[in-house]
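User: Run a structure prediction on this.
Assistant: Running it now.
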Amino acid sequence: MGADILLLDLQGLTLITDYFVIATAETERQLNAMTEEIALEVQKEMDRAPLHIEGTAQGGWVLMDYGSVIVHLFLEKQRTYYDLESLWNKARTVVRIA
C-alpha cells in the first residue's frame, strides 16, 4: 500500500480529467507492485484497463490514465519535486489518507 494517498477533484478546473489519485511508494519495487495491483484490481472490479501508462519505477513516477481518473504514483523525492498538490491547489481534496 502506498503512503500519503490523496484524491483530488479537478472537475471544473480542467478538461483533461475529473480526478487525480496521488500516492507515494517507499521503493522502486513497491512502486512497481502498486502499479501492477492497481491495474489488476481496476480490471477485475470495473473491467477497465488503463488508456495509457507512462513513466517507470526507475524514474520515480508512474502515471496511469483511466480517462476520468489519472493515478500518479511517486517515489518521495519525485513527489516533492513535482508537487502536484501545489500545482492543482484549487482542486478540492476528496480524501487524504496520510
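The longest strand covers residues 3-9.
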